[in-house]
Amino acid sequence: IKGPVSTPYAEPVISGSTREYHLQTEATKLDIMISQQFCSDGMSDFLYEYKVSLKYNGKNYSGCGILLNTL
Q1: What is the CA radius of gyration of the chain?
Q2: Is 49 helix (H, G, I), strand (E, B) or coil?
Q3: Are the CB atoms for 45 and 52 separated by under 8 Å?
């Protein structure tokens, strides 16, 4: 991803402890899935609370995350 990406906000689809966001503009398609499950980044011994998957214009990304404020 090069630079910031702006899309209008869309309410998440909630299923159990997973939230999915599906955002789209004329030039951008962005799907984000946040799952409450322990996740390791492979570089440290720290376990994160959330697994995050992102699909941006057909390319997949994944990582770990922590809760910064209430979802």
Answers
A1: 13
A2: strand
A3: no
* pTM of the model as a whole: 0.81
Burial of residue 68 (CB within 10 Å: 0-12, 13-18, 19+) is: exposed
The residues, any chain, with a CB within 8 Å of residue 56's CB and separated by 6 or more, are 1, 5, 28, 29, 30
Do 41 and 52 touch, CB atoms closer than 8 A?
A: no
Residue 53 has pLDDT above 60, yes or no: yes
- Beta-carbon contacts of 2 under 8 Å, excluding residues fewer than 6 positions away, are none
44: CB partners within 8 A, 6+ apart? none
Which stretches does DSSP call E strand in 1-71? 13-15, 18-24, 29-40, 47-56, 59-65
pLDDT, position 5:
80
